[in-house]
Amino acid sequence: MVNTRILEERLGWRATEDGEAPTPPSRAIGHQPMLQGRVDSATRGRGRRVGPSRLNRKTEAEEAWATIPVILDDPDRLAARGHAPSIARGSAAAAAMDQLRTQILRVIDDKGLRRIGITSPSRGAGRSFVAAGLAASIARLDAMRVMLIDSDLEYPGLADLLDLDAPGPLEAVLSEQVSPEEQLRRVGGDDHGGLALALNSAPVVQAAERMMMPEAILALRAMIDCVAPDVVIHDLPPLLNDPVAPALLSQLDAVLLVADGKRSTAQDVLECERVLEGQVPLLGVVLNKSEDRDPRRTRGRH
């Protein structure tokens, strides 16, 4: 699922034989992907002094988290009830997601990030599957709170993917018709951890313009802040030829790009980098739905 070798070849790297020095890329990459170990340890996400006011907010968030209605008792049941390949513990997809989780959480901790957007150049790359799989993987950790938001506002589909019922339209939260807590449902964990879902039952009309309004932005932030998750994952619409994703970039700390291993091109990835440049850091690129036919992978095997 996460096939970096093919991605490097498509972006201009030449595959090398064992012991051979790597060949420089044929073109410059605008971003430095954070998931390759290039992290600055000057800012740390832990070990900060917590004052009384923050302690009070933390207590309130924990109480709010405990009151979220629980719809499934285990994150592994998400895939079992859905139409996507299994992301349950022990599956091939779960192993890939756990590996991605390790890298993501390391960077989040080192850089003090929290709000991660998962997008793709175009539809059909599997970004919602990666978003759900990564969220479920994080939720399996003890005392880790993660929130997954269906941020594909004009074409919501996360509830259908997971075969769950959304509590209502996200528009009602953005327009402050209902309290943010009413949109949330919890999967697994206990009163201190697990997965909170913010699903959406209906398209948000003129979503790009909507997310330029201060009240909508504040409502979105209130939905997140009311339970203070450790990680927030936004299942975004495609980055290219869609006005909603660029409108949401200001609400993110970093972006993870999902490329279709059979359809996405190097030019697609470069164009996405151009859109992100100067706005939000690129965590890295996940190559989904790819086939690695490198003979070196099976050398010595019969």
Automatic annotation (TrEMBL):
Query: Is-annotated flag, keyword Nucleotide-binding?
Result: yes
Q: Which key words tag this protein in UniProt?
A: ATP-binding, Nucleotide-binding
Mind telling me which SUPFAM superfamilies this protein's record contains? P-loop containing nucleoside triphosphate hydrolases
Q: Which InterPro entries match?
A: Bact_polysacc_biosynth/exp, P-loop_NTPase, Wzc-like_C
Instruction: State the CDD domains in the record.
Output: BY-kinase
Identification of the protein by name: Exopolysaccharide biosynthesis protein
State the organism of origin.
Answer: Pararhodobacter marinus
